[in-house]
Amino acid sequence: MSEINRTIGNKPELQWVSVELIDVDNNYQREIKPHLVEKILKRFSWAKFGAIVLSRGEAGRFNVVEGQHRWKAASLHPDVSDVPAVIVSHEDVKGEAESFLAINRDRMAVTSVEQYWAGLTAGDERAIAVSNVLQSAHCDVVPAQGHYRPNLTNSVTAIDRCLKRYGQAATRRALLIIRAAWPDDAKALRGTLITALARIIRANDKTVQDHELTAAIRNQSFARLTAHAEGFRKLSGGSAETALTKTIAELYNKGKRVNVILIGEAR
Predict the structure, then answer these.
(1) Among positive and negative, which fits the CA dihedral 177, 228, 164, 110?
(2) 214 and 147, same structural domain?
(3) Are residues 94 and 126 in the same domain?
């Protein structure tokens, strides 16, 4: 460490504060998102709540510096009247906003991979579903971001979305096709590719042949596929996923007169 700030100020107070004494200053706070409040209410537990950060206001009231969604959920819960809080002192709203920025700017975001491994340990249904489909295709999630090896993926969010849109069977087949096509590629299990293949499989379940899909992409690098897909996007727009789906379908259908496949609808 080259520098350490020694002007650390006074220690904050730790206490329970009535939810009715807490306000939100909309000059710097983000708009409350009802779906986040509902999510916290649905899973409300003191063991998962933590402490919110408050600033002393006037007439014994407090302003939320960090934790407004947790405070809002607590204020709506019939069994909650006060919340644990770290209370800091600010001279004005500018100081509150500076603390808000520092807390949120310097906080390291939890990656989807970290959420997955924690969720698996906690028995989260979504993490377990992702794990099950990966294991069924002899794949797994990377142990940490950047630790790429063949048959490992960091595309947890994409696989979760695939399971919801196209189902377990189509997602598993997509994973197996990628493994067969590029067994030595450490970054083969990309989210857009898994999604594009699962979409094709779900839309053409009775006609598509997995070995032919494998052959269609085997001689292509991912860079070549995405370059071709970008051509589709320039012509007709759409998402990267749809463009890649069109690219793979075109390669599969090349030279065919029967049993051609469609790209299917995005969900």
Answers:
(1) positive
(2) yes
(3) no
Question: Quick check: 144 and 113 in contact, CB under 8 A?
Answer: yes
Domain that holds residue 77: 13-105
Residues 119 and 223 in one domain: yes
Residue at 166 is within a domain: yes
- Expressed in angstroms, the distance from the first to the final Cα of the chain is 49
Residue identified by tokens 């596929």 is 225
How many whole angstroms from its chain centre is CA 37?
A: 18
**Residue 164 and residue 146 in one domain:** yes
116 and 84 within one domain = no
- Which pair of tokens denotes residue 177? 């096709």
pLDDT of 39-91, one tens digit each? Answer: 999 999 999 899 998 988 888 899 888 888 999 999 999 999 999 999 887 66
Task: Tell me the pLDDT tens digit for each residue of 93-112.
Answer: 676 666 666 666 666 667 89
Q: 244-250, long-range: CB within 8 Å, 24+ apart, which pairs?
A: 244/192, 244/193, 244/196, 245/196, 245/199, 245/200, 247/196, 248/196, 248/197, 248/200, 248/213, 248/216, 248/217, 249/200
